[in-house]
Amino acid sequence: MEDIPALARGCAVLGTGGGGDVRTGALAARRAMETYGEVPLVRLADLPEDALVVPLSGIGAPTVGHEMIYGEDEPRRVVEEVERIFGRPPTAIMSSEIGGSNGVAPVAWAAQLGLPLLDADGMGRAFPEVQMISMHVAGLPADLVIMSDIVGNVVTIRPIDGLWSERLARAVCVAAGSHALMADYILTAAQARGAVIEGTVTRALEVGRSTEGAAEPLAALQRELGAARLITGKLTDVERRTTGGFVRGTATIEGTGDDRGRTLRLELQNENLVAIEDGEVRAMVPDLITVVDTETAGAIQTESLRYGQRVAVLAWPCDPLWRTPKGLETAGPRAFGYDLEYVPVEESVKEESRG
């Protein structure tokens, strides 16, 4: 239980602005562990080949997640449907995305269900769309999605591919009030090998612990991530709207101190997608872009961005899986409608800006 604060901090950073506010996930995790006991963290190598792993995540607009909090019934209903379909109970729960609340809340779900948590996820960060997951890149079929909402509905979808899984699941999510719990790409341990990103819960803990007791938290975080600092400044404009089950918009940061006279604009779709300065792209998906408080180095989710906040914008490389042709097709800039050729962040930023 003492690991929850560090896990929450790390997941907030890895969430690149999305995945939901970690505070609600951390509270739920702590309460569940107090009630049901500690959650074992297991490696994929610890599981038998036929072990059934259920990836769980919230789907919808993070702004709605502030008010529509998960109860204990949603994960139970999803797992009951998994057991009905597969004829056996799952062996472990896995976070679909390690970013944001979706990286922390699975601790609560695992505790409630009496299952261990797998030290892995499907992104190594957060992405806004259902098909933007490592299992899709690895070629596993997206032939089953199970969703449950706060009022008790359970929906089982049999999509023909990953893109249809996004369209259909998003429609159900919007009908449920733009927030629901979802299991997809349910797989065995054998199928998971090479199809998930391993060690990401441990990585989130390392990121979260990097600022504990640090004299300069921002510098400590930047070193831990190997990140470039794109700008340090003040948020001067935030345009944000909730539509189609997403939070979309832009945020503008005007530089202060050594960055005075510079302006950086972030393009948002739940997550920070592209960072632009003077018409030049400084960083872009699938690399990670996170806004953090300059004093605490705590990550600020897109739904919490406010005028006047003093922030730094950090960017660092994604997992190599996302730089493959299939990874870029799935979650590169063109997957979000940007007519941009992907350039790795370490090539697009000035070397002197690196920590």
Automatic annotation (TrEMBL):
The organism's place on the tree of life at top rank:
Bacteria
Give the protein name, as stated in the record. Answer: DUF917 domain-containing protein
Q: Where is the S-Me-THD N-terminal domain?
A: 2-157
List, for all copies, the residue spans of the domain called S-Me-THD-like C-terminal: 162-345
Q: Name one Pfam family in it.
A: S-Me-THD_C
